[in-house]
């Protein structure tokens, strides 16, 4: 399109380009630079070669964090790929009041992870709703240590991540379901296929690309988990700090007297390495969809 | 996904039997209960008075003597209202920055030809591969270098123009037929006039989606303000609530009141704007 002055487009993109440089490109470069130094929140910054990375190889907390991420991902993947699809099918039909249900199911998504974790922290507390009810029923004699056991805490964080994520992926599936050809459903129904059969042979193939997209999004967000674990463990990372995530370690080393910006940057690169595969896949999918 | 052609929809297939309808509503209500009850439980806890035993094994779902005392008490414990104002300040800066910055940049990338546009677009796209947490440490170093450590501006600034939002606005502007612009050019309209009178009215759906998400994202954010802010006086609501949780674990009523102060505004914003949101979703704004 024509425009009179050559600099007009640049004027319009200037703020975004500035943000791109200052808050995206420069920090990316600086992360790599810092990772090879001993920079501290207060001073420091000498080149130390691979020291931060050899330290990371020996870091038991990082090993725990990576194990937690893998568990997180393996539990979240099947559940957050399938449950939101079923939910989307449930809210797809335009029944009276369906907008209310769609909005309500999306509410946990718009709530802050901190709010959600504080709510579930109270529900899962030793003296909270679930333990009280379970003891009243006589199912358990002692409260179940949902928030103080290394694995139960992790699974509690996983559960609330799934609870919070259902609505988000439901909406993504909902827009994909609109594109599944209706005649296919009709033809299958005429041929005598029941709802279950039609789900597997019409709906699932029809939203296959979206399922792949959702898988990638779920995998990456499982690797990036922070707030849920931080708030449920009250910032401690659980018993013995064994319920840390990689991002929690980055936060831990980014501030305060124990801070080590160089090591935190090295951990950031570890995070990049484990997320880059799924992220590149996502970008390819996006190109294909566009 | 978009490759499938939209099919004609014969009306006969849409009719569903009474049995299926009942089953669908039963399932909808079940999911509704699972989704909403934790929020209602927290609301109820926040309204329960000190005399009521909240640790009972058979607690009552409704408060016996509903009281707002916990809201007053939480405000005495932490400056919760000024935390709310801090969150609002951050959210307003982020919304304004994105509404203006992402819109004008998206317009230029979609509708104007200039040297370097392709490269710029590639760089915007490349940032999407990078999870924000990867650069958060050096982001903090940058903000500190700008003298903005421990300030609300420091919290708001990096997200004030989101790269994804620029790309989403570009996509929205691209959907406007070029003929409309061509006619305006012949009439002698400037770039600015075209953006304002032809561009903007046609991207309202996308603009509302990115502003709603900018607001929610800024209001809900936790990790970044936790890193930037040191002085408890400057905390945003999410950081302040975690601080409360760490300090006064003894009384769940106060934490419940605090979470409601954070949660209710965002629900009101979302409920008020959900029409635009779901319309924007149909236009394909949310694909990740």
Structure description:
- The complex is a heterodimer of chains A (290) and B (288).
- Chain A has a single domain, classed as MetI-like (MetI-like fold, Orthogonal Bundle), CATH 1.10.3720.
- Chain A has 13 helices and no strands.
- By secondary structure, chain A is mainly α.
- Chain B is an all-alpha fold.
- Chain B folds into 2 domains: 52 residues, no CATH class; 210 residues, MetI-like fold (Orthogonal Bundle), CATH 1.10.3720.10.
- Chain B is built from 13 helices and no strands.
- Chain B starts with 17 loop residues before the first helix and ends in a 6-residue tail after the last helix.
- The N terminus of chain B is likely disordered.
- Chains A and B meet through helix 1, helix 3, helix 4, helix 5 and helix 6 of A and helix 1, helix 3, helix 4, helix 5 and helix 8 of B.
List the keywords:
heterodimer, A: 290 residues, mainly alpha, MetI-like fold, 13 helices, B: 288 residues, 2 domains, globular
Q: What is the string of SSEs of chain A from the N terminus onward?
A: HHHHHHHHHHHHH
Q: Give me the number of helical elements of chain A.
A: 13
Full CATH superfamily name of the largest domain in chain B: MetI-like
Rg of chain B over CA atoms, rounded to whole Å, is 24 Å
Strand share of the residues of chain B? under 5%
